[in-house]
Write a structure and sequence with these properties.
By secondary structure, the protein is an alpha+beta fold. The protein has two domains: 180 residues, Bactericidal permeability-increasing protein, domain 1 (Super Roll), CATH 3.15.10.10; 260 residues, Bactericidal permeability-increasing protein, domain 2 (Super Roll). 23% of the residues lie in helices and 46% in strands. The strands form four sheets. Strands 2, 3, 4, 5, 6, 7 and 8 form a seven-stranded antiparallel β-sheet that branches. Strands 15, 16, 17, 18, 19, 20 and 21 form a seven-stranded antiparallel β-sheet that branches. A six-stranded antiparallel β-sheet has the order 11-12-1-14-23-22. α1 crosses α2. The longest helix is centred in the middle third of the chain and has 31 residues. The chain starts with a helix and ends with a strand.
């Protein structure tokens, strides 16, 4: 996989324009070096597939006279690429240079001279001082995914050393004078096309970039570029849209991403900055889908809990419930009033949620009789973490406030119910929320990419994921 850990990210050409990105990705020198190592392995493999056709000719060799020669069955036995570098050209693109490379091959030789004398044997050839330089162009294909190609390439073959097995010493003169040049030309003609193939072979991998990643049946997240990549001397910064959408309906939320800058760090290969905008766009999408609600019945509360969802328990705090609806089970409907809002501060992620809680008595015929509606404002802390290739979270309750919105059973004081609803939140609502958050949301990835040595920090207005990568 040729340099795919970074070219795949660099190669996105913007299809949309936005003031600020929701997600930023930075590839560091460490990541570029890993990409170089991957690329060299692929190019080395490609050069090992060089095919040199059989060729023959007639030359005059002193003191033998005319010599008919042929070389056949030539094949590569070893390729070495001891020196290589990938250089970023600020504001433009990528150059790949390979120096002091060598190729070893062997084959068979046959000569005929003085009309009747024939000789044959095998030979080994070591070609040294091979150098390759190529520039890589980056564009977008018709699907909005990246595509790369070798824009220009040059290759030169240095010295060659041959060892014949069998035959006389004059064969070396024949090689040095005539065959050496022919073999070098045959090699040089194939090197750049093979390098171009190695770059082109990256494109199927680039097509796996999750420009639009499905999350579940309600949501997908878009990771298209909102501006051209910023290529500096030692790093590449990418600006991705990083916005959740309802599947089949791309509606923009009533808020925009705020500007943020990644800090100067170089411990990991890759850094991903995800803004509060991205997470809040997810809340907007799920709220639009109408799934930020939860119906709670008594069987969802642990049997060990003293809190029971029935009119007897609630009648302790609101006597008229027990009088008007004796001996009935209850149901609670928790529903968001507005989209929850997440804020990032250093080492702290907080979600503010405003919901209503509607309480019903369940009649023997299963109809629901409304009892009251409460306004519930809750603040929860979110612990963010990376699980495989996804960003996941877990929340814990900070505080909650209850006020009465409507009563169907007469006035009552809300204060005595606070402990009950505090318990309902901790025992039922938050576990349900955490079960969903634990499934995670896909990060921008390409191919069979694995994250390693991952760290996550909460900073002002965004979270920073530092990670190394590995491709299988």
């Amino acid at each position: 996989m040729f340099l795919c850990c970074w070219l795949g990210l660099v190669a996105l050409i913007p299809t949309t324009l936005s003031t600020n990105p929701g997600v930023k990705v930075r590839l560091t020198e460490k990541g570029i070096e890993y990409g170089r190592q991957l690329g060299m392995a692929v190019i080395q493999q490609k050069l090992g597939s060089i095919k040199i056709p059989d060729f023959s000719g007639t030359e005059k060799v002193s003191p033998i006279g005319k010599v008919q020669y042929s070389l056949s069955n030539m094949h590569i036995v070893n390729v070495g690429l001891p020196k290589s570098s990938v250089d970023l050209v600020p504001g433009t693109g990528v150059t790949l240079s390979i120096g002091d490379a060598f190729i070893s091959l062997n084959g068979n030789w046959r000569v005929k001279y003085l009309r009747i004398i024939k000789d044959s044997g095998s030979f080994d050839l070591d070609v040294n001082g091979l150098s390759i330089a190529t520039t890589i162009s980056i564009k977008s294909d018709e699907t909005g995914r990246p595509a790369v190609s070798s824009d220009s390439c040059s290759a030169t073959v240095g010295s060659a050393k041959v060892k014949f097995h069998g035959g006389a010493s004059w064969l070396y003169n024949l090689f040095t004078t005539f065959i050496d040049k022919a073999l070098r030309n045959a090699l040089q003609k194939q090197i750049c096309p093979l390098v171009a193939d190695a770059v082109s072979d990256l494109n199927p991998q680039l097509k796996t970039l999750n420009v639009l990643a499905k999350v579940d049946k309600y949501a997908e997240i878009e990771y298209s570029m909102v501006s051209s990549p910023t290529v500096l001397k030692s790093l590449i910064d990418l600006s991705l849209k990083g916005e959740f959408y309802n599947i089949g309906k791309h509606q923009e939320p009533p808020f925009s991403p705020a500007a943020f800058n990644l800090p100067p760090q170089n411990n990991n290969m890759l850094y991903i900055g995800m803004s509060a905008f991205t997470v809040n766009s997810a809340a907007f999408v799920y709220n639009n889908a109408g799934v930020l609600s939860l119906s709670i019945t008594d069987d969802m509360i642990p049997k060990s809990s003293p809190i029971r969802l029935n009119t007897k328990t609630f009648g302790t705090f609101i006597p008229q419930i027990a009088k008007q609806f004796p001996g009935l089970m209850m149901k609670l409907l928790v529903k968001t009033v507005k989209t929850p809002t997440l804020t990032f501060q250093p080492n702290n992620a907080t979600v503010q949620a405003i919901t209503t809680v509607t309480a019903f008595a369940i009649q023997p015929n299963s109809t629901l009789s409304p009892l009251f509606v409460l306004n519930l404002e809750a603040s929860v802390s979110a612990r963010m973490f990376v699980s495989e290739m996804k960003l996941a979270a877990a929340v814990t309750l900070n505080k909650m406030d209850l006020t009465l919105d409507k009563s169907y059973v007469g006035d009552f004081q809300v204060g005595p119910l606070e402990n009950v609803f505090h318990g309902v939140l901790k025992l039922v609502v938050l576990p349900a929320v955490n079960a969903q958050l634990a499934k995670g949301y896909p990060l921008p990835t390409i191919g069979k990419m694995k994250l390693m040595n991952t760290q996550l920090d909460v900073l002002k207005d965004y979270i920073l994921i530092g990670t190394d990568v590995q491709f299988s």
